[in-house]
Amino acid sequence: MPPAANNAPRKALSVDGESRLALVRRARRIKRCLDDAYPDAHCELDFTTPLELLVAVVLSAQTTDVRVNMVTPALFARYRTAADYAGADRAELEEYLRSTGFYRAKANSVMGLGAALVERFDGEVPGKLEDLVTLPGVGRKTANVVLGDAFGVPGITVDTHFGRLVRRWGWTDLEDPVKVEHAVGELIPRKEWTMLSHRTIFHGRRVCHARKPACGACPLAKMCPSFGTGPTGFEEAAKLVKGPERDHLLAMVTQS
């Protein structure tokens, strides 16, 4: 239960007429709050090699990371190299992927991916964005995940959560993921891009939900021009907060 002072209604932050400098400063305050909220944020797909991560990201389309992580231990034990995927028995591979949904298309993707890696990159996952995006089924989002988490190269991953949140925060009103990536990249230092992506995605999954964000229990509320999109009362909003960080997130609100 928050202190009485925190029960008072909060006004939504207006960004009308906000200068570029004010936007940059506010974006970086939000970034710092995310740092405090999710210090342990990370890629929620399990992997040990760049190839495993690349395959896992491809499989994550139209399903959850949890579901992919249920499938990949057996998959990665059976298919260890790009050549293994390129030469896979399609029916066998499809059975490994069946529970992820769209398993026939995903089998095509990972087989094609394996073949392209063997033919053009000696079976190794390249560490440059311009090479990764030439691979079948690999766009900038997938490439940035692989670069950031497998190679330590900063990248901004614009998935549905990331795009939704940065628009709610008033960082951009753009919809195109590539344009969003560049717009956000102009606000936040490059070295922070990968962790910003993880922490924003964590926040989208735990607090700032698509249909009913937990505005009244959000540590970013005072900086968010979209405050009020979801319930603003603490007790009602707190019920919407998910994840292992829940107690920590709620404490950030009650102690602010």
Automatic annotation (TrEMBL):
[4Fe-4S] cluster binds at residues 208, 215, 218, 224. Keywords: 4Fe-4S, DNA damage, DNA repair, DNA-binding, Endonuclease, Glycosidase, Hydrolase, Iron, Iron-sulfur, Lyase, Metal-binding, Nuclease. Binds 1 [4Fe-4S] cluster. InterPro entries: DNA_glycosylase, Endonuclease-III-like_CS2, Endonuclease3_FeS-loop_motif, Endouclease-III_FeS-bd_BS, HhH-GPD_domain, HhH_base_excis_C, HhH_motif, Nth. Gene3D superfamilies: Helix-hairpin-Helix base-excision DNA repair enzymes (C-terminal), Hypothetical protein, domain 2. Its EC number is 4.2.99.18. One of its GO terms (molecular function) is DNA N-glycosylase activity. Its cofactor is [4Fe-4S] cluster. GO terms for biological process: base-excision repair, AP site formation. Residues 59-206 form the HhH-GPD domain. SUPFAM superfamilies: DNA-glycosylase. It catalyses: 2'-deoxyribonucleotide-(2'-deoxyribose 5'-phosphate)-2'-deoxyribonucleotide-DNA = a 3'-end 2'-deoxyribonucleotide-(2,3-dehydro-2,3-deoxyribose 5'-phosphate)-DNA + a 5'-end 5'-phospho-2'-deoxyribonucleoside-DNA + H(+). SMART domains: ENDO3c, FES. It is an enzyme of class 4 (lyase). DNA repair enzyme that has both DNA N-glycosylase activity and AP-lyase activity. The DNA N-glycosylase activity releases various damaged pyrimidines from DNA by cleaving the N-glycosidic bond, leaving an AP (apurinic/apyrimidinic) site. The AP-lyase activity cleaves the phosphodiester bond 3' to the AP site by a beta-elimination, leaving a 3'-terminal unsaturated sugar and a product with a terminal 5'-phosphate. Belongs to the Nth/MutY family. PANTHER family: A/G-SPECIFIC ADENINE GLYCOSYLASE/ENDONUCLEASE III, ENDONUCLEASE III. This is Endonuclease III.
